[in-house]
Amino acid sequence: MQQDKDAPDRAMRGAGKRSPEDTTSGHDDDQLDAATDWLLQLRASPDDADLHSAFTRWLSASELHGAAFRRAEKVWHLSGSVTPAFSGIWDGHAGTAGDSAPAATVTTLRPRRSRPGRRAVIAGGLAACIALIFFTVAPPPEYADADLSSGVAEVTRYDLADGSQVTLNAGSALKTALTGQVRQVTILAGEAYFAVRPDPKRPFKVLAGDTVVTVTGTEFGTRLADRIVTVEVEGGRVKVASGTSGKKAPIATLARGDRLYLERGTSETMQTKVPVSHIAAWRRGLLIADKESIHDLVERIKPYYPGRIFLTPGGLAGKRVSGVFDLSKPVEALRAAVHPHGASVHEIPSLLAVVTPG
Predict the structure, then answer these.
(1) How, if at all, do strands 211-215 and 238-242 pair?
(2) E-state strands within 237-343
(3) Which of 64, 75, 253, 340 is the most buried (most CB within 10 A)?
(4) For residues 287 and 265, what is the distance between their CA atoms, to the nearest angstrom?
């Protein structure tokens, strides 16, 4: 659910701004990225005849394009969305009967009316113990210092005192310091998207762990995770610096479509180019994963689930996932993410979801 804090509705930027038509590389990951971008644009503008014509040309350019689009729609469908809307277009271009596979099952753990067996008692006891451990944990301490925050499955937009806007992803918290001389925001937890009002005399700074992002006026997103800080730019330019000492060392200057990953506590970075429609896609209720580990994907889904999500040991955490997932249905998104690896999701509804290897 998205809420506005004293802010008028704004059209979300990104969808339709970039055509992936020129992406013709034979590499599977490139094709899946392009197919995902087409899927998002077609969902955003289903009646755009020019967009459909461009999409048809892209499909016709290579059989690989149809196969990639089939994969993108399959993941979207598995994550709880409606039946694929464009299957009639790509069916005539590519695909094999061997592409389909049954989804992993989601098992709901409920009390049984008949006398439970030994295995049911053990499973129920284990689930109860896990729930007890997780639900006795105190709220995150960073929220105590927050000026702005968002709750479970809540995407919230705020107007800042300087005329800028910030949109918080679910489960996020910020601390602000906005004066006549300084514009500074600290991400205490989670993820935020900023639309910064230009003011060359007062650069806008975002602090995320040891990382500082400096801009004068642009649109970008920043995410603070346990191990990684992510910065991605939708418009304009931003400067990124980092370091554990008082003085931060310059890392990079990012432009439209750039995404930078910084490993916290080290100098390790990775910079990539992404479709603009992928940036802060959570504003539209989407999670777009590109070769992301299941561990990291679970961490991104957690703020959308009212209970706790527990990933059991067994080698599943490091498996990689690509696809588009519906954040409004977090358990279905989990199922779609772990399905290719034969894993399952067991749930006590709205309280606990346990992901186990197959």
Answers:
(1) antiparallel
(2) 238-242, 249-254, 258-263, 269-273, 286-293, 308-311, 320-326
(3) 75
(4) 26
- Domains in the chain: ranges and CATH: 11-99 (no CATH), 106-137+286-356 (3.55.50.30), 141-281 (2.60.120.1440)
Q: What is the DSSP string of 113-178?
A: SSPP-HHHHHHHHHHHHHHHHHHTSPPPGGGGG-SEE--TT-EEEEE-TTS-EEEEPTT-EEEEEE
- Enumerate the H helices of 176-219 as residue ranges: none
What DSSP string describes 224-261?
Answer: E-SSEEEEEEEES-EEEEE-SSSSPEEEEEE-TTEEEE
SS3 call for 45: coil
Lookup: tokens for 1: 């659910």
pLDDT tens for residues 204-226?
999 999 999 999 889 999 999 98
Which residues of the chain are modeled with pLDDT < 50?
4-26, 80-122, 125, 129, 135-137
Please name every residue paired with 106 in a beta bridge, in sequence order, or none if there are none. Answer: 345
- Name the one residue in this structure whose structure tokens are 């451990």: 133
Dihedral pair phi/psi, residue 292, rounded to 5°: -90, 145
